Fold this protein.
Amino acid sequence: MLDQPEATEFAVLRIGDQEIQLPIIVGTEGERGIDISNLRKYTGCVTIDPSFVNTAACYSRITFVDGERGILRYRGIPVEQLVKSASFVRTAYLLVHGYLPDAECNRKFSDLLNRHSMLHEDMRHFFDNFPHGAHPMHILSTMINALSTFYPNVDSLSMSEDIDVSTARLISTVRTIAAFAYKKSIGEPVVYPRRDLPYCANFLNMMFDSPVNPYEIREEAVNILNVLFILHADHEQNCSTTAVRTVGSAQVNLYSTISAGMSALSGPLHGGANQAVIEMLKMIQADGGNVRKYIDMAKDRSSTFRLMGFGHRVYKTYDPRAVIIKEECHRFLETMHCKDPLLDIAMELEEAALKDDFFIARHLYPNVDFYSGIIYRALGIPENMFTVMFALARLPGWIAHWKEMIGAGTRITRPRQIYIGKTYRKED
Ligand code: SDX
């Protein structure tokens, strides 16, 4: 187990005439958790907390999020610092290993990424059998699962492969799979990774280069992609990371475990929100830009409409990632001399929501997905690839949590329930 901090204070729980003391664990950032690991043994009771709103599922050293103060740090380093000083590849190494790589480590890791950037040729033909229009997220999670048939031995029991090789293969091969899926979807020949290009430049080249229209790799495009990937690289115990930790706790092959995380991320309430934001902004644009109408719809309890890209389970203030992405979005569009009317609508929507009591009372602010899609549009990424971009970036986070969970000797995840169904009865 991750050596948990010693309890220095206790909570007293009284049930009927029974009174027990429960240790209060205090994290390095002052978070306090009541340790109930012996609750059922001492009282016969379990706790109930649907969607785990109040429940810490584990101890972790990877990422710290403070939702009240809008703080996000990877291994203690603020993301505001990382987007200025590190690349996505160095940030991936930091998440998986706990420290930023020195020049030699970075060279070795980059070399591994290059060596594992090719897709097994037998897998290339898998693309021919997906129906036209298949969503790239479904293709991606299927192909990642298929990786476990080519590399079956990457699981917690054997771990016969070094974590660096598995990390490199996932981060690099999945990037190739994503670009191939896009090329297949537009009927163009796939573009192979190049040894001479760094991670983000390689991805853009694989996406947009073509034999008849060579792609010019612009530094601004590579830089903004690095920023976006760094900001999406991890976010502690979100839905998809929890899926990875849960599936991985059964000692499932790493690639199948990551495939489970990929599926969770594809939901519109999670990673799928960046695509849903653009669809929402387009709907408002088609409706004459009537922002007030959609603000009112989002407040209407009888409507299922939600302001996509707004709100967050943890952030009750502005998502620090959204602050950076909004600034970078303005800068990038200016640099690329491109105007996007959806950005104007997004800003109008944000301004109206942040002044509205309904959103203020519920601490609803723009999250990481609110502005990211506008940058992807300016890069030429199609909307159905937006969540794929999120997934590529989140791979190092998922791997880091899988590695930490396995390394801590975590038992299989198996929560309890409170049964409220029919009691014993004979058949009707
Ligand atoms: C990501 O967990 C992570 O860290 C995720 C993530 C990561 O990096 O991994 O940060 C990435 O998934 C960001 C979130 C992307 N999703 C969206 O943008 C979808 C729109 N947002 C919501 O659906 C919602 O805000 C969630 C899903 C993000 C959070 O939902 P919660 O915590 O379950 O909050 P809730 O649904 O209980 O809402 C609380 C109240 C409700 O109103 P009341 O019942 O109190 O009257 O706020 C309202 C909700 O109706 N509300 C919204 C709203 N989000 C919440 N009302 C309108 N529009 C919204 N977007």
